[in-house]
Structures are given as structure tokens and as C-alpha cells.
UniProtKB/TrEMBL annotation:
GO CC field: cytoplasm
The protein's name: L-2,4-diaminobutyrate decarboxylase
Biological-process GO terms, alphabetical: carboxylic acid metabolic process
Entry keyword Nucleus: no
Cited Pfam families: Pyridoxal_deC (PF00282)
EC number: 4.1.1.-
GO molecular function annotation: carboxy-lyase activity; pyridoxal phosphate binding
Natural source organism: Pseudomonas savastanoi pv. phaseolicola (strain 1448A / Race 6)
Cofactor: pyridoxal 5'-phosphate
Coiled-coil boundaries: none
Length: 472
């Protein structure tokens, strides 16, 4: 009976890889066909029709098909009617076309199915992640005491960072251990300070940590979306006057809408003076470190923790991120031991000691292979190209009488709206309708947000292969 199942798996023999080789070849052909022939970022198939066709697919044991048939079905029904991120008109989100080297690395990751929680589930992969983390610490200026771990992306990284910030503060403030005793009776006074343009995961982290979203205090921003330092100073003083305890300052290097980079030099000075844990969310803008604009990340090395997403401007397949710490010892706040996994006497490294995740993918391979092939110099040139192109697109929009540029372009996003001689009451509704019409017909995928109480459209330029002509 077991022989009848062998073709469902990759087996350690020449015959054991036949089905695997054939499946990958068919998948490659289907994906290539779809991308080569796509007319738009979405097929334009009516949404109710698409949903009904997917719901009509039987998942019962009585109606199974061959793998070859399933691959064809996925190609024709699902992949062909999913968003094509490689298309020039797919510009809504921080969602990049993945590099070929990243896709190649994914093949190794999926086929070997390693888990990064313990050495005996990963082998060489553990050393690769450690090597890449050391390189990242060097890139961002962390000393030998720095460390880090790969994550699923910015959300997980930000939550982990703020959890460690909270626990470090409570330990130093009153020698309190959340691990042993839960939240202290004064936990309602704890506050996290950030800008009004930083990521929603700050509130999410506060809620998960039991502090509630009320613990997040948002500070005003400049027109470009960066934090107003004077307003931060006043906010911190107000919190002191109210008897509240600020323990973390979250800076952003690349806000989601504006692409704003906070003044890291000034914020690091404030954090040091006020003895705040400084977390820098560089999920979006971390790759600027390789560009000619790297001075905008000056003082990033002063962060206590740093979020970097590689599935943004490092052009990796989703998901791929990392959390770096200036002092590796802070990971002690995440450490839990299990007799079957990470015994204290283990001689080999078990990376579960540094994460809230147990089972974890070998995502470090994508960054390892990218640094070995594309390299930081070329990555920096890509970032420079995108930033220059973004400025050019913003100027084109500002020069048009039919459009209004709503904020200065600072990274690779353009915030604007169509005005077309319309009265103010009509403009918001028209712009929302434009976005949905373009999406449903598969013509273009634009972002939608709010800028200064105005409905805004957003272009996010993250395809380095495009020329300015695509946006004219």
C-alpha cells in the first residue's frame, strides 16, 4: 500500500524525484504563460462569477483529480484570476514583484521543508540564518552585541520588539517579571509613543500585550508624514505630568502612505535622554541604507530594535522579514524551554530561543542568495531608480490641471487625487469610484487612503524594471 503513496512525496532516490520534477516543470510553464500573456493586473472576471467558480470546485474524496489536472486548474482558474504583481499597473501596496533569485530560493525552502526552531530540524540552515543576521547587524551599524531573528514580516517584528521593550522596562523599573507574574498593578499607566502615521501594528501590539490601544499615544506629523519632534517633546512632558509611564518610542523609516522617514537623529537623542526603548520600524525603508539617500537613516544604529522587511524593497517573495536588536541579551524575554526542543544543556544552537514562533520557515536563504547574486550595490541602484522615478511621477501629477498632489513624494509613494474641475463635495466619491472601476475591470490597481480628511489615490512604485513611460 505504501508504494501507492510514494508519488505524492519527494523520496530520497532517483525514482523518488520523478513526480517532483514533473510537477515543478508544469507549474513553471503555467506561471510563465500567465505572466507572459496578462493584459492587466487582474483578469477583469466578474467577482461573483469568480467566487462561484471557486466554490463549485469539489474538495470531497470522491472527486479527486490528478496532480497534472490540479495544476492546470490552478493555472486557469486561480492564478489567472489572481492579482499579477509583475504587471506595470499593479501599484496599490508595498507589494513587489519577487526577484528570480528569491523564487529559486523558495524552491529549496518548500522542497526541503526545514524548520528553524531547532538545529536538528534545520542543520546548515541554522548557520545560514546566523550568518545573514550577522551581516544585517553590520549593515545597520549594530555592534558585536547585536543579534536578530527572521520573522514573517513587520507585524511580527514590531510585536516582538514592543513585547521585549515592555518586559525590559518592567524589569528595570520595579524588578517585575511578566513571564512569572503577569502584568503589574500599574500596567494601566504604561504608554508607547509614536507618530500619527506609524503602522497599525503599534496598536495591535499594545492590545496583544494586555495594555490596550489606549496605551498608544500618537504625535502629530509634518506635511511629509514625519514626526514633529517638538510635539514629541511636549507629549512626553504631558505624560509625565499625568503620572503616566512612557517606555517605548516607535520611529518609522518609511510610513505606509507617505513613505516618510522620521528624524532618527533627533528621536534617538530624545530616547536616550528619556530612557525610552527606541524601536525603528524600517519595514519599508530599510533598503535605503544601500542607496545614495542612506544619510536619511543616520542614527539607525542607535535603535534598540529594528524591523526590516525583505518582501518590500529587497524584492523577496512573501513572507520574509527580520527583527534586529542592538543588544542580543534582550531576547531572554522570549525564552521558553521545552524538554523535546531546546534543552538548556544543548550544545547546538536552537533559534526558537529568539522568536515567539516555534515552527519557522528558512526565509534567510532568500536574503543569503540575494546578497550572493544581486548584491547590495545593485539593490541600492534599484532603490535610487525607484525614488528618482517617484519624484518624476509626482511632478507630472502636480503639473496636471486634472489632478492634485496631496503630499510631497519622499520615498516611492505618490498621494494624489483626481479633481477634473469637480466641486469639492463630489471629488471624494469620484476618486473612490475610479479606484474600484479600474480594479474590477482589471485595468489598474491603485491604492486608496485618506490624506488630511481627503480621499486619496496612491501609487506605490516598487517595480525597478519600469521606465517613466509606463506612468505617462
Amino acid at each position: 500500500m505504501t508504494e501507492a503513496w510514494s508519488h505524492h512525496f519527494v523520496q530520497p532516490s532517483s525514482q523518488g524525484t520523478v513526480a517532483f520534477r514533473g510537477a515543478l516543470k508544469l507549474c513553471t510553464e503555467e506561471i510563465a504563460r500567465i505572466i507572459e500573456n496578462c493584459a492587466g493586473p487582474y483578469s477583469g472576471l466578474a467577482l461573483d462569477t469568480l467566487q462561484n467558480r471557486i466554490n463549485d470546485q469539489s474538495l470531497s474524496a470522491e472527486h479527486t483529480v490528478t496532480l497534472q489536472e490540479a495544476i492546470k486548474e490552478v493555472g486557469q482558474l486561480i492564478a489567472s484570476n489572481s492579482v499579477i504583481v509583475q504587471h506595470p499597473m499593479c501599484t496599490a501596496h508595498l507589494h513587489t514583484p519577487p526577484s528570480v533569485v528569491g523564487i529559486a530560493a523558495e524552491s529549496f525552502i518548500a522542497a526541503q521543508n526545514l524548520s528553524m526552531d531547532s538545529w536538528d530540524q534545520s542543520g546548515a540552515a541554522t548557520y545560514v540564518e546566523q550568518r545573514v543576521i550577522r551581516e544585517l547587524c553590520d549593515i545597520y551599524g549594530f555592534a558585536d552585541s547585536g543579534g536578530g531573528v527572521f520573522t514573517s514580516g513587520g507585524t511580527q517584528s514590531n510585536i516582538m520588539a514592543l513585547l521585549m521593550a515592555r518586559d525590559s522596562f518592567l524589569q528595570s523599573h520595579s524588578n517585575h517579571s511578566v513571564y512569572h507574574d503577569g502584568l503589574p498593578d500599574y500596567s494601566g499607566k504604561l504608554r508607547i509613543v509614536t507618530s500619527d502615521k506609524s503602522h497599525i501594528t503599534v496598536e495591535k501590539a499594545a492590545a496583544i500585550m494586555g495594555l490596550g490601544v489606549k496605551a498608544v499615544v500618537r504625535v502629530g506629523t509634518h506635511p511629509d508624514g514625519s514626526m514633529v519632534v517638538d510635539a514629541l517633546e511636549q507629549t512626553l512632558q504631558d505624560l509625565k505630568n499625568e503620572g503616566l509611564l512612557a517606555f517605548a518610542l516607535v520611529a518609522t523609516a518609511g510610513t505606509t502612505d507617505h513613505g516618510a522617514i522620521d528624524d532618527l537623529v533627533a528621536l534617538s537623542d530624545v530616547a536616550k535622554r528619556e530612557r525610552l526603548w527606541l524601536h525603528v520600524d524600517a519595514a519599508y525603508g530599510g533598503a535605503v541604507i544601500f542607496s545614495q539617500a542612506k544619510s536619511r537613516l543616520e542614527a539607525i544604529q542607535c535603535a534598540d530594535s529594528l524591523t526590516v522587511d525583505f518582501h518590500k524593497m529587497w524584492f523577496q517573495p512573501i513572507s520574509c522579514g527580520a527583527l534586529l536588536l542592538r543588544d542580543n541579551k534582550a531576547f531572554k524575554h522570549l525564552l521558553h524551554r521545552a524538554a523535546y526542543l531546546n534543552r538548556e544543556e544543548d550544545e547546538l544552537p536552537n533559534l526558537v530561543d529568539f522568536s515567539i514562533s516555534t515552527t519557522r520557515r528558512f526565509d534567510a536563504l532568500k536574503v543569503f542568495m540575494t546578497l550572493r547574486t544581486i548584491g547590495t550595490r545593485t539593490l541600492g541602484a534599484m532603490v535610487d531608480h525607484l525614488m528618482t522615478q517617484t519624484g518624476q511621477v509626482a511632478k507630472m501629477i502636480a503639473a496636471s490641471s486634472d489632478f492634485e498632489l496631496l503630499a510631497p513624494a519622499t520615498l516611492t509613494t505618490v498621494l494624489f487625487r483626481y479633481t477634473g474641475g469637480l466641486d469639492q463635495e463630489s471629488i471624494d466619491g469620484i476618486n473612490k469610484s475610479i479606484r474600484m472601476s479600474l480594479l474590477k475591470t482589471g485595468t489598474a490597481i491603485l491604492g486608496e487612503t485618506i490624506v488630511g480628511a481627503k480621499a486619496a489615490l496612491k501609487l506605490t512604485l516598487l517595480n525597478p524594471c519600469l521606465t517613466l513611460e509606463y506612468y505617462r
